[in-house]
Amino acid sequence: MNMTEKIELTAGGDASGMRLDKFLAEFGGISRNYASKLAESGSVFVNGVPAGKKVKLKAGDTVTAELPEPELAEAIPQDIPLDIVYEDDCLIVVNKPQGMVVHPAPGNPDGTLVNGLLHHCSLSSINGVIRPGIVHRIDKDTSGLLVVAKTNEAHEVLSAQLKERKALRRYYCIVNGNIKDDEGTVDAPIGRHPVDRKRMAVIEGGREAITHYKVVERFGRYTLVQCTLETGRTHQIRVHMAHIGHSIVGDPVYGIKKERFKTNGQLLHAKTIGFLHPVTGEMMVFDSELPEYFTVVLDRIRTSNS
């Protein structure tokens, strides 16, 4: 079996007496059912010894789980409604709704943006059969604009622009607290959290990550913020805002435990995207309206502050 990734965790005091499968589900970022299957297959170890799913942990135990390489079939075309902002022969700009996954992955084999795009048009093959056309991604519960390549040539040009930091990616978010400065830059490296695999974190030795932010509107307990990406690390804006003490409202991973508003995820929207057209060289900038799930909370905050 080809192993591509490992979960390595240390049980803290709060995990003492907890079943192994429950521990992996809570702290390892995988489902309890998947954790049970891994244990049954002999792929989970406690202090270096294979362990069953019902093993009770003690504080200080070292838990290692070997994750087999995921086996995914080719993404299939599906008739899914798409909000297409722009389209030509080499690229397409789509406004992704909150709750939609960008491409198939373990746990999300279909119903993704890629499945819908494949039904609508042909895509570049650079990223293989699971992520065709995908130049950059946004999280499932983040909404907003993405540019997707139809041809390999366009894909290469657009990817180079992102790598060379020539593309514009501007987001709006509502954060907890009143940010002191009207604008600023978070320059803090991001990598996988050393304990919790579900999370990214600002860590020494992480990949360079730079986010520029600007206050749009203040509400005392909350702030509407514009964030512009210079780099594009996983969960970058969410991690950086939490890092400076202003987590995004509704963020289930990096946010506060008791939120005032009920949301289906973080209030983060990819509002503006800009790039040089891969064929004409023309600068193209697209802007989107804030979606309803976002404005409903924003209006409630404004009303409560009036």
TrEMBL record:
Family matches, as Gene3D superfamilies: Pseudouridine synthase (3.30.2350.10), RNA-binding S4 domain (3.10.290.10)
One term of GO molecular function: RNA binding
UniProt entry keywords in alphabetical sequence: Isomerase, RNA-binding
Coiled-coil segments on the chain, per record: none
Matching InterPro entries: PsdUridine_synth_cat_dom_sf (IPR020103), PsdUridine_synth_RluA-like_CS (IPR006224), PsdUridine_synth_RluC/D (IPR006225), PsdUridine_synth_RsuA/RluA (IPR006145), RluA_PseudoU_synthase (IPR050188), S4_RNA-bd (IPR002942), S4_RNA-bd_sf (IPR036986)
Domain of life: Bacteria
GO-annotated biological processes: enzyme-directed rRNA pseudouridine synthesis
The protein's Enzyme Commission number: 5.4.99.-
Positions of transmembrane segments: none
Ranges of residues in domain RNA-binding S4: 18-77
Cross-referenced SUPFAM superfamilies: Alpha-L RNA-binding motif, Pseudouridine synthase
Chemical reaction(s) catalysed: a uridine in RNA = a pseudouridine in RNA
UniProt-annotated catalytic positions: D139
CDD domains: PseudoU_synth_RluA_like, S4
SMART domains: S4
Pfam families in the cross-refs: PseudoU_synth_2, S4
Membership in a protein family: Belongs to the pseudouridine synthase RluA family.
PANTHER family on file: MITOCHONDRIAL RNA PSEUDOURIDINE SYNTHASE (PTHR21600), RIBOSOMAL LARGE SUBUNIT PSEUDOURIDINE SYNTHASE D (PTHR21600:SF44)
Function: Responsible for synthesis of pseudouridine from uracil.
UniProt name for this protein: Pseudouridine synthase
